[in-house]
Amino acid sequence: MARSWRDPSEATLARVLLAPAFLLLGLIVVYPVGRLLWTSLYELSLTSGLPRRFIGLENYLSLLDDPVFADALVNTLLIVVITVPGAMLAGLGLALVANLPFRVKWPVRLSLLLPWALPLAFAGTISAWFFQSEYGVVNDVLSLVRTQRIIWVNSPNLAFGAVCATIIWKASSFVGLILLAGLQTIPGELYEAAQMDGASRLRQFWSVTLPLLRPSIAVAVIFRTITALQTFDIPATMTRGGPGSATTTLAMMIHQTTVDFLDLGYGSALAVVLFLISMAFSAIYLRQVRAA
Amino acid sequence: MITIRRTSLLLAAGFALAAGMAQAETLTVFVSPQQRPDVMRLAFDRFEAAHPGTKVAIQTGGTTSELQGAYLNTVMSAKDTTLDVFMLDIIRPAQFAAANWTVPLNDQVGDVGALMKRYLPAYAEADMVEGKLTALPGFADVMLLYYRKDLLEKYGQKVPTTWAELQASAKIIQAGEKNPELQGLSFQAAAIEGTVCTFLLPYWSQGKNLVQDGRLTWDRDAALKSFALWTDMVASGVAPRNSAEIATETTRKDFQAGKAAFAVLWSYGWSQFQGPESAVKDKVGVAVLPAVTGGQTASCIGGWQWGVSAYSTHKAESIALIRFMSSPEISKFLAVQASLMPVFPEVYEDKDVLAAVPFFGSVLPVVNSAHARPVTPRYNEVSDIIRTQTNAVLAGAATAADAATQMEARLRRVLK
Fold first, then answer.
1. What would be the CATH architecture of the domain defined by B142-300+373-415?
2. Which of A49, A151, A243 is facing B391, going by the closest CB pair?
3. pLDDT tens-digit series, residues B163-209
4. How open is the CA angle A121-B240-B165, to the nearest 5 degrees?
5. Taking CB atoms and an 8 Å cutoff, what residues of chain A touch B377?
6. The complex's ipTM?
7. A156, B397: Cβ pair inside 8 Å?
8. Packing angle of the helix pair B379-395, B194-205 (nearest 10 deg)
């Protein structure tokens, strides 16, 4: 029996039905990433007045002796190393508190949600005022124990610490929400059984809560790490990357190179580097999750 | 006969009106909140009255020059047609000319040479990029020394002509007032555009130039002296310890609240200090910026230019608009209404202008001797290098020697 277009084979039908999804993925993932890779091989700067020129890997080679790139790379990795565990611990604490059997649950849930719902740039701007040396509330509180006001932006370490503290505060509520969802899937009987076996609260947490929470923790760590790698808004609004380049991140450098300096070739090379780092982190975590 | 003529006249008028209505075009103009959109609106109303059929809509955003620059970069690199006209900071025409983002005006203004001769030389120069007339001057600006007349008088101090004199007078005033809140001098060292001028003021005052004909003419000694001048102001307690936090508006607010004896600030401060919310109304003097000891006075030139977008779909009307806005009449209007500095020398002598802003009578020599920041299409990079290093030195995060080395190495990468 000859098949007409009205009666395609199953394989053809599958291809036809999948085509829109592939087309969409191609359009929003493959094309931009491919274009980015391609642009990174060109000298393309809108301020030069010159047409673009193929230069191979030269953009990547100039990264090696760019002092700001070195600073931005180290700062970005440090932010991951400090704020991911920081936000996990703070988030776990928040989740455990929110999971307590309150009679009225919504105020607790709402206060957990609020920092998460706040736009990042708002959080950064608010925090910039918190840490402002003259009018900031942080120095106001500290003035109870010390006489000299701390000028946060005058020290690379203090400025970096203030940025990390803000990121942890902002991110902990998101982590808290994911972990709270995880906590609620743990059946109550397990705790009853553990109690009968004479396990202390700490022991229950260690042997029941933590192991069962592992998948949620893995998800939270992956999401947090990827967003920490892309840190932009909070340091951009709090310190503008200063003093010097003490709080400049890779994402800020990409933005500055492309939007302010209009050096699209070099900016693309920077973006490719950040993309590869993100991919590497994701691959490691995905393997961990699969193994678990 | 008469009736026929009248009828035909009426008909002609009717046609003209209909044609005008059919062509009713709206020009979108980008004016930032810094550039007094309220007053610009009044000037645009005059243009609309003179050009029936053309409407002008204001688009506003970005409170600092950097934010406006970033916004325009985004719009223009997307070849967006929605903007017709924009105001450019004096540091940008070179970049916009290199990127071909403005309509070259050489063939649109008649005799270019004769037209440009009418403007203050600094603006004629800034807007003519390698023979290409890129924009037309809108209003001028310059960095000035603001001082408290009452405090200087109280302690018998003269208006300082060198930074050392300023430092000495400030110390006397601070010691006498016994007010820990009172700063001797407020200047900008946050990582903002104005901080480029902060670094360059003493550098220029030593008779040095940073860039000549697009090439770096670096003088390490002059750079170190410039850093030393400012760090010493902080170390001696004349300038606040948090100077690395201070942006243009911080200086303006502190001086306006009576919290500083001296301030280095653009001309826009004047009208604010005379405003109803000012604690220093009628107590403010304006002078030429001090020089380094043995050097000459040097100021930093600012100001805003009108450009027509290369992607505008209403180029003819847009050019008419910027020619209107860049005229002696509007220059006078902006001076009287908003104390924005004129770009035509004769307007500084206008009676109405002097009645509104008395200090304009003595400011023209300052404008004429003020220096321009480096002229290069890659100005944004140059600016970033200078301001981050200056900020780091004032924050105490880098030594002056390290910062000077970094600054030179990085400027050489950009300016070749």
1. 3-Layer(aba) Sandwich (3.40)
2. A243
3. 999 999 999 999 999 999 999 999 999 999 999 999 999 999 999 99
4. 140
5. 47-49
6. 0.80
7. yes
8. 80
